[in-house]
C-alpha cells in the first residue's frame, strides 16, 4: 500500500491535533460524494453542506495529504495565466466573469477562517518582487489590469520601498497586494475538515476511490466499501492517478521543493521580513518565501517535471535561499520536502462535467491556494443549477500534451529550460 501518512514536513510537524478518521468499510448513500480531501474537495463540501446537501468525502490518505498540506502557504490572487491572457483567448465577456472571480478565493479563505475559527497563522500582505526593469514594467501593467477588475489593495514599491519590506538587495522594485497573505496550509485544510464535520459532513480517510461506476446514480468504490450518490465531485488534482482517464491526458503532475529553517528568533526574522509579508519573485521559475508563526523561514522554488522526488531537496533550494539572504549561511535547515501540483498546457484550471453528474476541477498549475477555494464555490453553484460561473471556466480551451503521456515530461522540461534561460539573462 502507498504511504498514506503525511510526508515529513514542517507543516506535518506543527499540525493542530485532529481526531483519527475511519476508513470506509460499508456501503453508504449520500447526495454528493467528493473524491479528495484537499482544498478543492473541502471547499466544495463546505459550500454544499451550507446549502443543505448531504456530503461524503473520500480521501486516499489523510486530509490535506497532497498539495493542500505541502504548498508554500501563500495567498496569491488571480490565476497562473493572468486575465489579459485569458481575454485574448476567450474574448471580453467570458474574461470579464473570470476577472471578477480572480480575487474571490482569498476572500473565501478569510471568511472561512473567521466563521469557523480556524487557527492557521493567517497574515495579510503579499509581495511580487521584480529582479529586472522589464519585470517591474510587467508589475505596473498588472496593477492596471487588476484595478480594471475592481482590485484596489495594490501598491507599487520602488527600490527604496521594497528594501523596507524585504532585506534582499536583488530587487529593483515590486508590488504589494494587501489582499494577498499567508497561512499554515495544512492547518487551514484541517480546520476546513473540522468545519465540514461540524455541519454533518462525513470524511473517510485511507479510503482511495478505486473505481467510479458511471450512470444515473453513480457509485464510487473504495477497497472496502462504496458510496452511492446523486453527484460526484472529482477533486484529486495531482494525486488522482488514472481514476478518470479523460482527465489524465490533459495534465501533468509536477513537483516543487520547499525547505524550512530552524527558528530564527525575533530579531533575525524581523530583519529579513520586517512586516511579515510573504514574497515571490517574478521569474518564470520563481522562488517564494515567508516567515512561519514560530519565526522560521520557509523557502520554496524549482520544479521537477513529471513529479519525481529529487534525491537532495536541500541541495536544490538552499543555494536559492542564500542568494536572496546570504546572512543565513550558518542557519540550519530543519525540514525539506516535495509536493506535486498539476500543470496544464494552458496553465489554466480545467473545470467540467462528465455525463450529467460527475463534476471536476483540476490543474491549478501552481496557483492553487486561492483558486481551489473559489472552485469549491463554483462547483457547488453548478450542482444547485447556477452554472454561469462554472461555464466560464468549463469553456476555457484545453489541449492534451503533445505526444501524450509519454512525451509530456520531456516536452515541459524543455520549456522550463528555455524559460530558465530567459530568467537568467533577463530576456
UniProtKB/TrEMBL annotation:
Which GO cellular component terms, listed alphabetically, does the Swiss-Prot or TrEMBL entry include? cytoplasm
* Signal sequence, renumbered to the chain: none
> Which protein, by its recorded name, is this?
Gamma-glutamylputrescine oxidoreductase
Record SUPFAM superfamilies:
FAD/NAD(P)-binding domain (SSF51905)
The enzyme class is: oxidoreductase
Lineage from the top down? Bacteria, Pseudomonadati, Pseudomonadota, Gammaproteobacteria, Pseudomonadales
A molecular-function term among this protein's GO annotations: oxidoreductase activity
EC number, as in UniProt: 1.4.3.-
Entry keywords, A to Z: Oxidoreductase
Q: Where is the FAD dependent oxidoreductase domain?
A: 31-381
InterPro entries listed in its UniProt record: FAD-dep_OxRdtase (IPR006076), FAD/NAD-bd_sf (IPR036188)
Which branch of life, at top level? Bacteria
Amino acid at each position: 500500500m502507498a504511504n498514506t501518512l503525511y510526508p515529513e514536513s514542517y507543516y506535518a510537524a506543527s499540525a493542530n491535533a485532529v481526531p483519527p478518521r475511519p476508513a470506509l468499510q460499508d456501503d453508504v448513500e449520500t447526495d454528493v460524494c467528493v473524491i479528495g480531501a484537499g482544498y478543492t474537495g473541502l471547499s466544495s463540501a463546505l459550500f454544499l453542506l451550507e446549502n443543505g446537501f448531504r456530503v461524503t468525502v473520500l480521501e486516499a490518505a489523510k486530509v490535506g495529504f497532497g498539495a493542500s498540506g505541502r504548498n508554500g502557504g501563500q495567498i496569491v490572487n488571480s490565476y497562473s495565466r493572468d486575465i489579459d491572457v485569458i481575454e485574448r483567448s476567450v474574448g471580453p465577456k467570458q474574461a470579464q466573469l473570470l476577472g471578477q472571480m480572480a480575487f474571490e478565493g482569498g476572500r473565501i479563505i478569510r471568511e472561512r477562517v473567521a466563521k469557523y475559527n480556524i487557527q492557521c497563522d493567517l497574515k495579510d500582505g503579499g509581495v511580487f518582487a521584480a529582479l529586472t526593469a522589464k519585470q517591474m514594467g510587467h508589475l505596473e501593467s498588472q496593477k492596471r489590469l487588476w484595478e480594471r477588475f475592481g482590485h484596489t489593495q495594490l501598491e507599487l514599491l520602488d527600490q527604496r520601498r521594497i528594501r523596507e519590506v524585504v532585506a534582499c538587495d536583488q530587487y529593483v522594485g515590486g508590488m504589494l497586494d494587501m489582499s494577498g497573505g499567508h497561512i499554515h496550509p495544512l492547518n487551514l485544510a484541517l480546520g476546513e475538515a473540522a468545519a465540514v464535520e461540524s455541519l454533518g459532513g462525513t470524511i473517510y480517510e485511507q479510503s482511495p476511490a478505486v473505481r467510479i461506476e458511471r450512470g444515473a446514480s453513480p457509485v464510487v468504490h473504495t477497497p472496502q466499501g462504496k458510496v452511492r450518490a446523486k453527484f460526484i465531485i472529482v477533486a484529486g488534482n495531482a494525486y488522482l492517478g488514472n481514476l478518470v482517464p479523460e482527465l489524465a491526458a490533459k495534465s501533468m503532475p509536477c513537483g516543487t521543493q520547499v525547505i524550512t529553517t530552524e527558528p530564527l528568533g525575533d530579531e533575525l526574522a524581523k530583519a529579513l521580513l520586517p512586516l511579515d509579508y510573504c514574497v515571490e519573485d517574478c521569474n518564470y521559475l520563481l522562488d517564494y518565501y515567508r516567515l512561519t508563526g514560530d519565526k522560521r523561514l520557509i523557502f520554496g522554488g524549482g520544479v521537477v517535471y513529471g513529479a519525481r522526488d529529487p534525491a537532495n531537496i536541500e541541495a536544490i533550494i538552499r543555494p536559492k535561499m542564500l542568494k536572496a539572504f546570504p546572512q543565513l549561511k550558518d542557519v540550519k535547515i530543519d525540514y525539506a520536502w516535495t509536493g506535486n501540483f498539476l500543470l496544464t498546457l494552458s496553465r489554466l484550471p480545467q473545470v467540467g462535467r462528465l455525463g450529467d453528474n460527475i463534476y471536476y476541477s483540476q490543474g491549478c498549475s501552481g496557483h492553487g491556494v486561492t483558486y481551489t477555494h473559489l472552485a469549491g464555490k463554483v462547483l457547488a453553484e453548478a450542482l444547485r443549477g447556477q452554472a454561469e460561473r462554472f461555464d466560464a471556466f468549463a469553456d476555457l480551451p484545453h489541449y492534451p500534451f503533445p505526444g501524450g503521456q509519454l512525451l509530456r515530461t520531456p516536452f515541459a522540461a524543455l520549456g522550463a529550460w528555455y524559460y530558465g534561460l530567459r530568467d537568467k539573462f533577463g530576456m
